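User: Sequence recovery, please. Input:
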């Protein structure tokens, strides 16, 4: 994690050197100002060719310079002169001036950074004895006032299996990083590891309107919301790297280690459970809410999320939200928890309930997360209650808070605004694996850490005759966990597996199959459990249980998302 000691401002040079350098800079600016006006398209008395030649001369000076101070000023002059040439160009295509301005801006940044991220904030700043003015353009509010910058091409793509989504253009693609805020309600919807966003950097001379301030400008611009730069009468498409910020987040997270502990009630995963924004909230973009499975975490969505953000069309339409939850509790309790996280997020993001983003929501669930997604879109029935209890809820004697929780767990309606679910390797009819050694181990450990089950045990204790005999022993001890409820013969699960998504909610199924597995399936979920009747589309891929990592499955999801909102016929597309 970046810190102020390692990545703080570079120490300034001695005052005499700074004074000489400042005088040299002022003389140079006066010369350029007397020769040309570069204030965003004003008439120029110096041709683009002449400005480009001056920039190229500064490039040579930088390469030959004997000191870092001389190099810094030469690269700075090279970048700003080349930018002036961009403004004087008549063609709005990538030119030699644009390429040189990018190259020299990058060289200046690298010299200042010395291989470490640079910490900047808007306003005047001294880097290596060179004074510049930092200007943020369109950068999101999710970033703090103080931001760390690192070149995107220095970020490892290992967490994303090498898949980098980027495109060339003007400027230096960066990762802008800051610690999450704590002064606004939305802050709790940002990942605790920090906020990582794409940015594009370059150097330019100040506009004519602020010519009284000759300090060169280091621009940090948001390429997502402002994908072009206007220089003079010309427009330049910015270079952009959408994968590097996500890879940085994945590199820093501890979720992989915490996920297994979450299955047995690990406290750390519980502390960070909730809904987290992978993008900045946009009230006009459709949310994709991704729900991981048993012993899982949002890391299972890394490749799919990267593919969506790296597709310009899809990223313009969708924003990605990840759910983190302890996967130790029974299915109905997990549904209750996830609904609570989504409710909390909407309360922060859209308290008036007017945002267009509330409609057309897409849920994507992997493994147990797919079952939770189905239950979120279903209407509970008396059969579910009757599978566990022999008496109506109103007749039970218990603490009011325990009864309120019990009611929320067993009585629910389809979540409003959702109109599509994508199931990925979801055990809709349970999994035989839940009866194995792991299931028994989790049953022994996890139940002690399920707050909702503690309330259920208290209710059962006070109402022993109100419990169905088939579940009485489990309820009395509280040994009902996520794996228990995934057993094919568990009474409550047998009832809730009949709950179908509400009318108007389209759903698609993607399942995995491995050669030689009996019964056919992905090694954890049999095809007979994963294939769901009524699916608009069905795709079977050669994959183990980590279906969201499968390239064919990812392509299938992207296809569904492109067509989302259009009218479809129900189609089955099965890969043998």
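Assistant: Recovered sequence (576 residues):
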């Amino acid at each position: 994690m970046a810190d102020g000691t390692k990545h703080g401002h570079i120490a300034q040079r001695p005052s005499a050197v700074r004074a000489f350098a400042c005088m040299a800079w002022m003389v140079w600016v006066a010369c350029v100002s007397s020769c040309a006006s570069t204030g965003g398209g004003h008439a120029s008395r110096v041709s683009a060719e002449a400005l480009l030649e001056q920039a190229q001369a500064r490039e040579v000076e930088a390469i030959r310079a004997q000191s870092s101070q001389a190099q810094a000023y030469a690269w700075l002059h090279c970048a700003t002169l080349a930018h002036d040439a961009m403004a004087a160009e008549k063609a709005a295509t990538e030119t030699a001036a644009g390429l040189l301005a990018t190259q020299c801006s990058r060289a200046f940044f690298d010299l200042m950074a010395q291989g470490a991220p640079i910490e900047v904030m808007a306003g005047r700043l001294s880097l290596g004895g060179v004074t510049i003015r930092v200007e943020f353009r369109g950068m999101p509010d999710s970033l703090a006032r103080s931001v760390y910058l690192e070149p995107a091409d220095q970020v490892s793509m290992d967490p994303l299996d090498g898949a980098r989504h980027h495109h060339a253009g003007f400027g230096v693609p960066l990762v802008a990083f800051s610690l999450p805020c704590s002064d606004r309600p939305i802050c709790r919807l940002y990942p605790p590891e920090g906020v990582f966003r794409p940015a594009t950097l370059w150097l330019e001379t100040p506009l004519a309107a602020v010519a009284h301030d000759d300090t060169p400008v280091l621009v940090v611009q948001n390429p997502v919301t402002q994908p072009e730069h206007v220089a003079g009468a010309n427009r330049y498409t910015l270079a952009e790297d959408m994968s590097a910020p996500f890879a940085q987040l994945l590199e820093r997270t501890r979720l992989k280690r915490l996920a297994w502990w979450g299955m047995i009630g690990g406290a750390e995963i519980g502390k960070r459970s909730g809904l987290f924004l992978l993008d900045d909230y946009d009230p006009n973009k459709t949310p994709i809410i991704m729900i991981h499975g048993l012993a899982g975490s949002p890391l299972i969505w890394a490749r799919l999320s990267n593919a969506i953000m790296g597709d310009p069309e899809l990223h313009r339409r969708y924003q990605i939200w990840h759910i983190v939850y302890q996967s130790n509790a029974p299915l109905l309790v997990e549904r209750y928890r996830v609904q609570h996280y989504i409710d909390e997020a909407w309360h922060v993001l859209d308290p008036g309930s007017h945002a267009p983003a509330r409609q057309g929501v897409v849920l994507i669930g992997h493994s147990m997360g797919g079952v939770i997604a189905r239950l979120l879109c279903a209407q509970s029935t008396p059969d579910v209650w009757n599978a566990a209890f022999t008496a109506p809820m109103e007749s039970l004697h218990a603490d009011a808070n325990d009864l309120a929780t019990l009611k929320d767990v067993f009585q629910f309606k389809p979540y409003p605004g959702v109109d599509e679910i994508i199931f990925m390797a979801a055990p809709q009819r349970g999994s035989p694996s839940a009866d194995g050694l792991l299931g028994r181990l989790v049953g022994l450990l996890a139940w002690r850490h399920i707050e909702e089950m503690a309330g259920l045990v208290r209710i059962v204790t006070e109402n022993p005759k109100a419990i169905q005999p088939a579940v009485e022993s489990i309820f009395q001890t509280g040994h009902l966990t996520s794996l228990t409820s995934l057993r094919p013969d568990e009474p409550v699960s047998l009832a809730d597996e009949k709950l179908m998504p509400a009318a108007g909610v389209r759903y698609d199924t993607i399942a995995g199959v491995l050669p030689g597995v009996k019964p056919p399936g992905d090694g954890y979920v049999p095809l007979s459990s994963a294939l769901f009747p009524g699916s608009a589309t069905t795709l079977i891929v050669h994959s183990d249980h980590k279906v969201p990592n499968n390239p064919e499955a990812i392509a299938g999801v992207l296809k569904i998302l492109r067509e989302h909102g259009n009218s479809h016929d129900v189609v089955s597309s099965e890969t043998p």
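The mean pLDDT is 85.
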